[in-house]
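A protein record pairs a chain with a discrete description of its three-dimensional fold. The following entry can be read in just this way:
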Amino acid sequence: MRLIILLALPFFLFSCKSKTNNKYDNKNSLPNIVIFVGDDMNWNDCEPYGSKVVKTPNIQKLANEGMSFDNMFTSTAMCAPTRQQLMTGLYPVRSGAYPNHSVVYDGVKSFAHYFGDLGYEVALIGKQHYGPADSFPINYLGGVQHDTGIDGDDIDLGKIEPIVSGDKPFFLVIAQNQPHSPWNRGKSDQYKAEDLTIPEYMVDSPMTRSHLSSYYSEITYMDSLLGKTLDIINKAEKTNNTISIFTSEQGYAFPYGKWTCYDLGLKTAFIAKWPDKIEPNTRNKATTQYVDIIPTLLDAVGQNPLRFDVGIADATGNKSFDGKSFFNALKGETQKHRDYTYGIHTTRGVINGSESYPIRSVRSDRYKYIQNLSHSDLFYNILTAEDKQNPLSLLYQSWLENAKNEEQLNWVEHYKKRPFEELYDLENDPYEKNNLADQAEYLEIKKSLGAQLQSWMDQQGDLGIESEMKAVSRQNRAGKGEWFSYVQKLKSKI
């Protein structure tokens, strides 16, 4: 008997060693992470969030195999601030990245530091929209910063294959440009303009139908890139140890979407899959925000988010994340996380933007409160620019011309001329058309939310109009490379 044991021992040890060395078969190994970012995509324009029109089979498959969050929000409906809050776990004014095409303050750290120190290969392909380089020491895999409609995909997903098949755990961000305008990808005849049902939060016009048709086609094209990404991970046999995330970023470039603090701008899709860790085909109504994502992922890999120094203090001296982990929600243990989410928009430095039109907002589960700090001025952006050469400007003009009645026309005009305060009952008015701010029965709700908003601004060091006037200075530095050149071209048009 002893002889049999001795003879079997080498085989047993070899088997154990083999299993241990294959970290991706080891349940105790660090999971890989991939975040696929839609670009300017309305949260409900995909199948898991209720679309009956737009075909998104890969997003739906991810939802079937993972958890969909119904109340995820960014705090800024513009690309660079949104992406940098996701990467840093910090709100925009505190980090410095609050106007568009902006960068964070020197010394601010990002996910590249936290996960790089844990041994991860941290890489991004596609659209950068972050800087300076010291704050984002990311392995950049190339791609274009703005889709010009060149032949072929705007990102070469083959470049992620060596990283996915490597020995190190990886943290990948897939940052293609779709469905950001111009909508020039996908099958142009896939969604016929004349057959579309126009959502109630839009004005039905030929231009609306044409833009929606192209926008929907580009979402389906983007969905195919998500499928290719997940196929590469699966081919490398890494699926079972990978946290796969899809998020839609901020809303689309239609009125009341991008460039606003309304839900069509700030609300975002968020779907996460992690085999054997996240219950498949589940939904979670917990209120979460982009700044919570990195703390949550650190928690998921066994790190305490509270111990990290983010490189910059808030106005109270705190140097930890603004975000907080919702890992318990991911595990299905709770449907609660935040009581409030916050929003900010600045027009200063934005192409065709108002000289100064700072907007701040706070949202509870039921109510949204907004302050337009320069309400005596008009709100301008590329939609309202009256540029006859720009399809987005022509879109807004078509809404003015095609409003079906006075009520709808007033709502379209409200996009440019807004009061100081707005208050919406989101339960009864999800598209924020009926402003309750001046109604006496809502006075206490308005006061309570106003105090909550001011407390957040104080904590962030947000001085409102004064911070707005400094916004352009946040655009003066950028990282090296293609994105820097792109920013310079944009600034020449301001």
In short: The chain has a mean pLDDT of 90. The chain has 15 helices and twelve strands. The radius of gyration is 23 Å. The first strand starts at residue 32 and ends at 37.
